[in-house]
Amino acid sequence: MNSPISRRTVTASLLAGAAALSTAGVAYSAPAAAADHPRRPHERRDTPTIVLIHGAFADASSWSGVIERLQRHGHRVLAPALPLRGLASDSAYIRSVLDSITGPIVLVGHSYGGAVISQAAADAPHVKALVYIAAFVPEVGESALQLTDKFPGSTLGQATATQYYPLPDGGQGEELVIKKDVFRQQFAAGVPVRTAQVMAAGQRPITLAALQEPATAAAWKKIPSWYLVATEDRNIPPAAERWMAKRAHAHTVTVRAPHAVSVSDPGPVTDLILRATRSVR
C-alpha cells in the first residue's frame, strides 16, 4: 500500500525542481506562500509580472540580486534563458514567454536583451512598461553593433577583449565570448574578483550575426520606458546609452557602475524596476 504524500514531501520536491532549473540557467521565482494559497504559475493578480531578459556574455543568474529584492516586495518574477542566436529568433522566443503570461507585464532587458524586448513587445497588449538596464534601444533598421559604434568608449571590439569561435554549421557564422583574463575589467569592473571569475567561466556566447541583425520593431515608441545608464560601461558607451534613453523619452537614472550593473548594483536596478511597476497600477 502506498503511503500518503505529506506537505513536507511536496515542498522538498518543489525545492529540488527549483534547484534543477537554476542549474539549467533559469532563474526561478517561487510563488509566495504557495502551500497555503495555491495558484497557477501565471495567474492574474493586481500587480504585474516582471520579466527579466539577460544579454550577451551572461545568463539568468545575473539577475539573482534583483530577483531577491523584487520578491521581498511581493512581486512575481520570471527570468528565462535567452538563446543569443539571432535577434529575430530570440525575440520570437521571448514573445512566446510573454504570451504565456496572464495580466500586465513589466519587461526588463539588459544589454543585447534591450534589443530583444524592443522587438518582442511590439503589439503585445499585456506589456505595460519597458525597462532598459545599460541596454540597446534600437530603431527599426538599427543593429546592436551599429549603436555600439555610434559613440566612442566601447573596448569590446578590441582583439584583446573578445575571442571568436566558428559555429558547427558548415562555416556559416561564428560566436564570441569575452576572454576570461579581461572579463572583469571589460564586463564586471567593481564586482568581487571571485564572483567575476565565476561569471567569466559560465558566460553565454552570442553569435556575431545576432549583434549585426537589424531590428524590425521598436516597441518603445508606444510603451512607456525607463532607462538606467551605467557610467563605467565598457561594452556600450555611456554616451550611446544616454542618447538612446533620450530618443526613447525614457525616465532615466544614472549609476556609477559597470556593464554588469545588475550584479554590481542590484539595488538601483531594482528601484528603477519598482518605479516602472508602480506606474502600471
TrEMBL record:
The lineage of its organism: Bacteria, Bacillati, Actinomycetota, Actinomycetes, Kitasatosporales. This is Alpha/beta hydrolase. Residues 50-269 form the AB hydrolase-1 domain. Keywords: Hydrolase, Signal. Residues 1-29 form the signal peptide. It comes from the Bacteria. The keyword Manganese does not apply. Gene3D superfamilies: alpha/beta hydrolase. GO terms for molecular function: hydrolase activity. The keyword tRNA processing does not apply. SUPFAM superfamilies: alpha/beta-Hydrolases (SSF53474).
